Amino acid sequence: MASSWFTPYRTTVRFAIPYILMLLIPLTIGYVLYLQTVAVVEREVTNANLQGLEQSKHMLERRMEELRGIIRLLQTDTRVARLQQIADPFAGTNVNRLLETWGGLYDFGAHNNFMSGYYLVFKDSGIVMSANVIYEADEFYGTVCAYEGVDQEAWREELFGEYMQSRIIPARRTLWDGQRAS
After folding, report:
1. Contact 176, 145 (CB under 8 A)
2. What is the mean pLDDT of each run of 10 residues along the chain (182 residues)?
3. What sign does the dihedral 75-60-156-182 (CA atoms) show?
4. Which of 87, 131, 168, 182 is the most buried (most CB within 10 A)?
């Protein structure tokens, strides 16, 4: 009985099987080539991205070394060192030292596009100084700079609570001259 059911389709099956096999061969070859191509493209993209990251890392390391050089220049400046010992910067001849130090500061941000400026913060005198302006710390924090959610006492504790040479403070939401920055 089965042979009588199969008989009318015999010619169709006889031609269809070789046709399907002929279609499967290029499909299989195409699929294997596709997988190999994807692997090669993935490897090339990964290598290109790693090279870009490595290049960025080296550039960032050079910039950080420039910043370390600037920090060393400021640390070895005798005027800055003398001003660190002054408790009352507005008494007597201390004003002259303050102005002499301020006048000797160099605006590194003008020649370095990696940093826009810097501030020297003196713990004992409560002075914050840049190449362009001098503030008292109480006036500086809140007027010029403020971290969101951090009051002035917490800021002072973070800044002066422990010795920090060449420590980088993590980025956070900050207000600079009333403008949000991070």
Report:
1. yes
2. 62 84 93 97 97 95 87 86 85 86 76 75 86 86 84 84 71 76 68
3. positive
4. 131
